TrEMBL record:
<dbReference type="Pfam" id="PF03009">
    <property type="entry name" value="GDPD"/>
</dbReference>
<protein>
    <submittedName>
        <fullName>GDPD2 inositolphosphodiesterase</fullName>
    </submittedName>
</protein>
<dbReference type="GO" id="GO:0006629">
    <property type="term" value="P:lipid metabolic process"/>
</dbReference>
<keyword id="KW-0378">Hydrolase</keyword>
<dbReference type="GO" id="GO:0008889">
    <property type="term" value="F:glycerophosphodiester phosphodiesterase activity"/>
</dbReference>
<dbReference type="GO" id="GO:0005886">
    <property type="term" value="C:plasma membrane"/>
</dbReference>
<keyword id="KW-1133">Transmembrane helix</keyword>
<feature type="transmembrane region" description="Helical">
    <location>
        <begin position="125"/>
        <end position="143"/>
    </location>
</feature>
<feature type="domain" description="GP-PDE">
    <location>
        <begin position="227"/>
        <end position="481"/>
    </location>
</feature>
<feature type="transmembrane region" description="Helical">
    <location>
        <begin position="85"/>
        <end position="113"/>
    </location>
</feature>
<dbReference type="InterPro" id="IPR017946">
    <property type="entry name" value="PLC-like_Pdiesterase_TIM-brl"/>
</dbReference>
<comment type="similarity">
    <text>Belongs to the glycerophosphoryl diester phosphodiesterase family.</text>
</comment>
<dbReference type="InterPro" id="IPR030395">
    <property type="entry name" value="GP_PDE_dom"/>
</dbReference>
<feature type="transmembrane region" description="Helical">
    <location>
        <begin position="163"/>
        <end position="183"/>
    </location>
</feature>
<keyword id="KW-0325">Glycoprotein</keyword>
<feature type="transmembrane region" description="Helical">
    <location>
        <begin position="41"/>
        <end position="65"/>
    </location>
</feature>
<keyword id="KW-0472">Membrane</keyword>
Length: 541
């Protein structure tokens, strides 16, 4: 395997200590005759693979932050425990990636200094555990949250050009330790294999932009209008969700639609509530502890008015933005009550925004009565019917007959043989490709995608031409006057060529320089090896 000789003794010792967990000076290491064996090379390869594996998981962790509030809500409904699990995810991922990257940097520095890659058994165990933890995370993601694979595909449209540049840069830097190893090793077969693998990887990276597509690679004058904002349960980062305060905060964020969820009380009053139980967003456990687990529809309106719908927001802090609320906002949030649909319609009418809602629970035996009661409240409110966006699929024909002015929004894609034209669709952002969005836009079909919180995702959908997005972060997206990045195809082509050419020149320079250094560094040792070989042959003769 590779011969080693040195950097300075102190530098070699400092590198060997954390990697091998042994305080061996360069001279002692040389006397002991430690060499990088095939087993050591195998562990280095495993270390490199674990680093890449963890790096991919870090990318996924950043991507799924857009939807992580849904995961927090899911855990609360299952365990009645509220915690911002995104912090746990990021801290754990940061620890894993920091550990594997630190070991990899040490290994590369040791290789450049000509020191043996003797990975300690503790590191070997920790690397195996790291790989198992990341594999378990990917497995859990695939089983419980499979739609996030679609999110990753969309994210590549936002990050593909930059991932390409980063990958080319990383592989280019890898040329230095690779060249050092190749000029030091005595195995011709290993040299050929490593060079072939490296060259194949670089050629694939150089040609990768041929397969990279992004809606944001376009001319400035082709950029569609900024998508309208739909407040998901209002402005839930600034106020308790599904409250009048949340609606007013959403209006301040220039949202055009207030999206909410409606349930009907036991005495027939429609009110705003997302969960089937009241435990997450009210103090029902303190007021009605024996009834806390009941469905929201089992409470009458008088009981519901006794509940506080804002104190939980200040106590649990579902979003980091809660910490930055002003004292006046905190005081107002603490006083929030469950609003009726009539109150929400009146507020929407005064604010001149539309209201879009789902009617829950769809499987209730009295669902038709829920529809009729809800329609009666809408008609009595005096709100212009074109400001009401109707989402529920159940008894939609009855709704069209009783309130013909209501706009109907469908939670599905259009069918080939539609009896009536579909003018509005409301879908998860993972369910529509950029090509489908463009086609719907050409056919004058309004497309609203949910839930979009991160600027990178909003930018991709903006470039694709989506009509509107439902968001928790209206205060963030409101401030965006332009997509995060927009590149004309000619500019991207020029960047691609320049990056590839610079990378190629650096790699050639690295191999040339390392070859020159290897001849200067080890000529005496090579001559000694030849002399010893000749003496050994003479003695045998």
């Amino acid at each position: 395997m590779a011969d080693h000789s040195g950097c300075c003794s102190t530098c070699a010792t400092c590198l060997l200590c954390p990697y091998s967990c042994q305080w061996i000076t360069a001279k002692k290491e040389k006397r002991k005759g430690l060499r990088t064996t095939k087993c050591d090379c195998s562990w280095f390869l495993f270390l490199f693979c674990v680093f890449l594996f963890t790096l991919v998981w870090l990318y996924f962790a950043i991507i799924i932050l857009n939807d992580f509030h849904n995961f927090n809500e899911f855990i609360f409904r299952q365990r009645k425990l509220w915690l911002d699990w995104s912090l746990v995810l990021l801290v754990a991922t940061a620890v894993l990636i920091s550990y594997s990257s630190a070991l990899l940097v040490l290994a590369l520095c040791l290789q450049l200094c000509g020191q043996p890659l003797k990975l300690h058994w503790v590191h070997k165990i920790l690397l195996i555990l790291t790989a198992l933890v990341v594999a378990a995370a990917f497995t859990g993601l695939g089983i419980k949250w499979a739609e996030e694979w679609k999110s990753a595909r969309i994210s590549l449209q936002a990050t593909g050009p930059f991932l390409h540049i980063g990958a080319v840069g990383g592989m280019t830097l890898l040329a230095w330790p690779l060249a050092s190893f190749i000029y030091r090793t005595r195995s011709t077969g290993l040299k050929v294999i490593l060079l072939l693998v490296y060259c194949a990887a670089m050629i694939a990276l150089y040609l990768a932009p041929l397969g990279i597509t992004s809606p944001c690679i376009m001319e400035e004058n082709q950029l569609p209008l900024k998508p309208a904002l739909v407040g998901h349960r209002g402005a839930p980062m600034l106020a308790p969700e599904n409250t009048l305060m949340s609606l007013h905060k959403a209006v301040d964020c220039d949202v055009q639609v207030f999206e909410t969820d409606v349930m009907v009380s036991a005495d027939g009053v429609p009110f705003l509530m997302h969960d089937e139980e009241l435990t997450r967003t009210t103090n029902v456990q303190a007021v009605f502890p024996e009834r806390a687990a009941l469905n929201s529809t089992a409470f009458n309106w008088t009981d519901l008015q006794q509940l506080n719908a804002g104190s939980w927001f200040l106590e649990r802090r579902p979003f980091p933005t809660v910490k930055s609320l002003s004292p006046a906002d905190r005081k107002e949030a603490a006083k929030q009550r469950i609003p009726s649909l009539g109150q929400a319609l009146e507020a929407a009418k005064q604010s001149n925004i539309s209201i879009m809602f789902d009617l829950r629970p769809e499987n209730h035996s009295d669902y038709q009565d829920f529809v009729n009661v809800t329609l009666a409240v809408i008609l009595q409110s005096g709100i212009p019917l074109q400001q009401v966006l109707w989402l529920p699929d159940g008894f939609r024909e009855d709704v069209k007959q009783q309130a013909p002015g209501v706009q109907h929004v469908y939670g599905r894609k259009r069918l080939e043989n539609e009896k009536e034209p579909v003018l509005h669709v409301n879908l998860p952002y993972q369910d529509m490709s950029s090509e489908e969005i463009r086609q719907y836009r050409q056919d004058n079909i309004s497309v609203n995608l949910y839930v979009v919180n991160q600027p990178w995702l909003f930018s991709v959908l903006w470039c694709s031409g989506v009509s509107s997005v439902t968001t928790n972060a209206c205060q963030v997206l409101k401030e965006m006057e332009h997509p995060i990045w927009l590149l004309p195809s000619s500019t991207y082509f020029m960047i691609w060529i320049v990056v590839d050419c610079v990378s190629f020149l650096i790699i050639i320079w690295a191999f040339f320089l390392m070859k020159k250094c290897s001849h200067r560094r080890w000529p005496a040792e090579s001559e000694t090896d030849v002399l010893l070989t000749k003496i050994n042959s003479l003695m045998q003769d």
